[in-house]
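Example 4.3 (complexes with small molecules)
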Amino acid sequence: MCGIIGILGNAPAAPRLVEALKRLEYRGYDSAGVATLENGAIKRRRAAGKLANLERVLAEEPLAGVTGIGHTRWATHGAPTTGNAHPHATDKVAIVHNGIIENFRALREELKNAGRKFSSETDSEVIAHLITHYLDKGQSPEQAAIAAVRRLEGAFGIAVLFAGEEVVLIGARKGSPLAVGLGDGEMFLGSDAIAVSPFTTRVMFLDEGDIAVLSRTSVKVLDADGKQVERKVHIFAGGVAAVEKGNHRHFMQKEIYEQPETVGRTITRYVNAFEERIEMPDFGGVDLNAESAVIIGCGTAHYAGRVAEYWLEQIAGISVETDIASEFRYRKPAFGKSAFSVFVSQSGETADTLAALRYCKDNGLKTLAVVNVPESTIWREADARLPTLAGPEIGVASTKAFTAQLSALAALAIAVGRARGTLSSDDERRLVRTLMEAPRLIAEALGAEPEIEKIAQELSHARDVLYLGRGVHYPIALEGALKLKEISYIHAEGYAAGELKHGPIALIDEATPVVVVAPHDALFEKTLSNMQEVNARGGKLIVITDAAGAAAVSEIAQHIILAPACDPFVAPLVYSIPIQLLAYFTAVHKGTDVDQPRNLAKSVTVE
Ligand code: G6P
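Answer. The structure with 6-O-phosphono-alpha-D-glucopyranose bound is encoded below.
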């Protein structure tokens, strides 16, 4: 994971490195560091914890120089201490690394035996020593970097700074993304386009195995075979402006409140409102009239896929399999005669999701990406894409990206239904009209905030919380539990309501609140029986339901969170709002770091 920036510039590097790192904190934030060349010598500043700590260090001990590299870390090998923070350096080389070097133990032994001294517990430090080892043998920076990179196993995106070399910066990638930003007499390296966006809009994405040798005015790219190649330059306008919180206390709160707009924007992308039809972009050969589909993602994106599984089966009658990417990629899944695959990802960079996509491609499946970040790796590698238009999501806990994913997937379900002939035009029109109501219903659902805030205060004292849901609301219950544990650190589990009696019921006592997602739909009575079972055992029920449901649970629920009455098709979008607000306010009451919860990262680019 981790964020990387490299600058071969004409202005003081340190403030620019920090500026870029601010945009990269979503990749990790447990320590950060920068290195610049001061009169040709490598000088570093590093700090454990958030970027603000590094800024303090830099204020006390500024760094001069116009050439430098920077890093924000999500620890894999070695605790998040200052000593383990990047850049890692020798007297000749400084490096920043994103990924995992799998053969670092063997390399470390070899280099130690050759007399090199290590000062961190990281896998990354071997890269600095290995390059130095080849420089000591008289190789040029380019030769030494190439020789070292050839010996690295695992996944990496790296940027290398050389002492005494004001005119060259080297980047290499394998498994982890790396982009080159082309400026005006300046060059940049970044772990994504967002990193270099404050400095340039011209971006080149390196391919697997590429090594880029940068000067201020040129980029030489060598492919995995060492052959000089050209890579396309994209104009990247996104992410230039820093995203602000506005009047909100946290990004997460702002993002929750943006949802009427972001859902509206995403739906409009796929809906012809005039004809009340779904209009999909060019599908690049993906045949929606297939026998089956697989939907893959991680975390929240996986839960969006789980909701889509119900929609696709119910609306389009297609057999659907959903899985977590990290399981799917090693399962050796088999596919029927005709199938397409869908990959759901906010960042478009999640390593496991990307590997699953490549697995499907290798097995002849067409791939469709539901992605929020344009030009991300999953976006670029998929055969076709369904963009979600949530805009930059800063809060680590995903909210508006989730409902944007649901919006795009709902449109996809309708499109598949049409392609497979399971939906009449009238049915399609009805579903499209229903979908178009989602932004208004979400805005209404946000109105429950005062009640939710009160309930959250009580919930913040719980040690364990159960979330129950049935049918399409089972994945919403899973997402509710995930949100709560991510940001409040309260243990929470989501269960299918019908599964309660097969184990989790043993957990019910007065101290374990049970949040039930239960609109008054066709399955409500079934879920009501489960609520009775909880009530009979002294459990405290927090029921998220509509007016009809509220009337039915008024005797047994300790708290009711009222959601607007809505068509079952859009209910998952609407009921996402109260579960997000409940987690948000519980975390606020607990005083946790809502936008950057401990141990997590927004985008997980390692396995
Ligand atoms: C991380 C984030 C989650 C996110 C998951 C998948 O774990 O903390 O919020 O759901 O990755 O990320 P993606 O970018 O693929 O949607």
